[in-house]
Amino acid sequence: MLAALAASQRRFHSILLRRGIHAESVADIVELAEQRHVPVRFVEEGELAAHAHGATHGGVIALCGPKPRLDAGELDALLDRTAGPPLLLLLEGVDDARNLGFTIRTAEAMGVTAMLIKRHVWDFDAAEVARPASGAYERLPLVQLADAGALVRLGARGIRRIACLANAKRTIHEFDLTRPTLLVIGGEKRGVSGAVRSVCDAFATIPTVGGASSLPLSHAAAIVCAEALRQRRAAAVAQSPQSETHASIASGAENCEAGDENCG
User: Fold this and answer.
1) Which CATH number fits domain 2-64: 3.30.1330.30, 3.40.30.120, 3.90.1720.10, 3.40.50.970?
2) Band (264; pLDDT cuts 50, 70, 90)
3) In what side-by-side order are the strands of the sheet with 60-64?
4) Does pLDDT of 152 surpass 60?
5) What angle do CA 43, 46, 52 make, to 5 degrees?
6) Looking at the chain, which residues constitute the CATH 3.40.1280.10 domain(s)?
7) Looking at the chain, which residues constitute the CATH 3.30.1330.30 domain(s)?
8) Is the pLDDT of residue 189 over 60?
9) pTM
10) What percentage of residues in the chain have a pLDDT greater than 90?
11) Residue 113 backbone phi and psi in degrees, to 5
C-alpha cells in the first residue's frame, strides 16, 4: 500500500485502519495519505473483513481503483521522456500470476524502463501479481499490447527488438544491449509467437550447461535483464571522467623509465 501511495498512479478513495492498531506500525501510511489528501478512517474488524473478502488484511485496507495500464500511445510519450537508451521487456504467454509478479520485481531492479504484456495476460488478479512484485507492480510502467503493431513503431524509433529463442545461433552475451533495446521472452508452453517473431530484428539464446532445454519465464527474464544492466554499467564506468583519469595515470606510469627522477 505504501508503494501504491508513493507511486500516485491509482485513485484512492480512502484507507481503512483497524481500530486499536498500533500507531507506529501505520505511521508512514497515515503520513503519506495525508500528503496525498486521502481520507483515513478507523473501523471495526468486521468492516475490514467484509472488504477483504476473506483475504489477509493485517489491519489495513485501501479502497482504491486499479493501477492504470499504458497503451501504445502512452508508451511513446514515456519513451520521449526517458533519459538514456530505453530497455523494454515484452512477455508472452505468462501462465502464473506469481511468476509475473516476480518478473516485474526483477525487471524494475535491473533497470527496465517499461514492461510490455499481451492483453490476455491481464486476466490475472492484480493482487496476486502485486504481492510477489513487492511494490514494483506500482512503480514499473506496464503497457498493454493488443497486437504487434506497437512493436513495429518501436523499431521505427530505433529500438532493436531481440527475441530469446532456445535454438538461436547467437547468445545474449554477443549482443550490444547498451543500445535502445526490447527484449522478448516467450511463455514456457508456446514460446515467442510467430507474429512477434516476424517483427523482431534478431534472436538470442541463453547459454546453459546440462540437460535443461529451456528455463522458466521469470528466470530467463532475470538473466537477460541482468546482462543488459551489466553491459550498461560497464559502459558507464568506461565513459566516466574518473576512469579516464585512471587510464591517463596508468599510461604515464608505463612511460616512466627506471631511475627517472621525474617519475613518482
Assistant:
1) 3.30.1330.30
2) very low
3) 40-43, 12-18, 60-64
4) yes
5) 95
6) 72-238
7) 2-64
8) yes
9) 0.80
10) 41
11) -75, -45
pLDDT at 258: 47
Count of beta carbons in the 10 Å neighbourhood of residue 90: 26
Give the span between the Cα atoms of 71 and 26, in whole angstroms. 34
Mean pLDDT of the chain: 85
Q: Which residues pair with 171 in a beta bridge?
A: 205
> Which CATH number is associated with domain 72-238?
3.40.1280.10
Determine which helix (DSSP H) or strand (DSSP E) holds 184, and give its type and residue range: strand 181-185
Looking at residue 198, what DSSP letter applies? T
Buried b (16+ CB within 10 A) or exposed e, 8-39: ebbebeebbbbeeeeeeebeebeebbeeeebe
- Give whole-number Cα distances, 150 to 153, 161, 199, 200, 211, in Å: 5, 12, 10, 12, 36
Residue with cell 532493436: 160
Task: Output the pLDDT for position 59.
Answer: 84
98-127 tens-digit pLDDT: 889 999 999 999 999 999 987 665 677 788
Residue 53 pairs with which residues in a beta bridge? none
Residue 258 backbone phi and psi in degrees, to 5:
-60, 130
How many Cβ atoms are within 10 Å of 246's Cβ, its own excluded? 11
